[in-house]
């Protein structure tokens, strides 16, 4: 195949990638904030002995884990206004949708982390008169969070990649900006190559940090 690469075109439009990267970072930040906050609440609710807390949390988690993220984003953007009259912008819809999607996975990470703490820790807390919430806050969560860090980082990396779904709602993140650039330059190979490298540069250090943390944790066992 006789093809001449012209990466100079991509360099000339580098501001497009910077703009897309900023939007990707903004969506990732808000989605992570929503996911962690809601995920902690859902994880604790799913561990509850009370059915009225456990059942809604389990339903939410399984619903968002069992349906495609793209379908969730489209539903929030197009269906929510019909049902509630509340019209969200495309960027807000993507941030909230990915946050809810991530919350289902963060909740399971929280639940697994708490469950990994031995029953003896709970018994010791009760023996000195601690309530459930106090034991959770002072004894269980500080130990569990350290074990949760590697899967949290992996989920965070996955969330960054999921931001590309925003292109379906015309959010100007990296993929959407790349597609617009291709329409203007007709150089898909160069643009997609640089796009792939950009995501690799962003995500690989995160994955590497997760692996290193996991290795350090295993050495301490």
UniProtKB/TrEMBL annotation:
Q: Which CDD domains match?
A: TM_PBP2 (cd06261)
Q: Which organism is it from?
A: Aquabacter spiritensis
User: What is the purpose of this protein?
Assistant: Part of the ABC transporter complex GltIJKL involved in glutamate and aspartate uptake. Probably responsible for the translocation of the substrate across the membrane.
| GO CC entries | ATP-binding cassette (ABC) transporter complex
Give a GO molecular function annotation for the protein. Answer: transmembrane transporter activity
- Looking at the record, the residues that make up the ABC transmembrane type-1 domain are 21-207
Where it sits in the cell: the answer is:
Cell inner membrane; Cell membrane
Can you name this protein?
Glutamate/aspartate import permease protein GltK
* Residue intervals passing through the bilayer: 20-44, 152-172, 192-210
PANTHER family xref list: GLUTAMINE TRANSPORT SYSTEM PERMEASE PROTEIN GLNP, MEMBRANE COMPONENT OF AMINO ACID ABC TRANSPORTER
Gene Ontology terms: biological process: amino acid transport
User: Which Pfam families would you find in this protein's record?
Assistant: BPD_transp_1
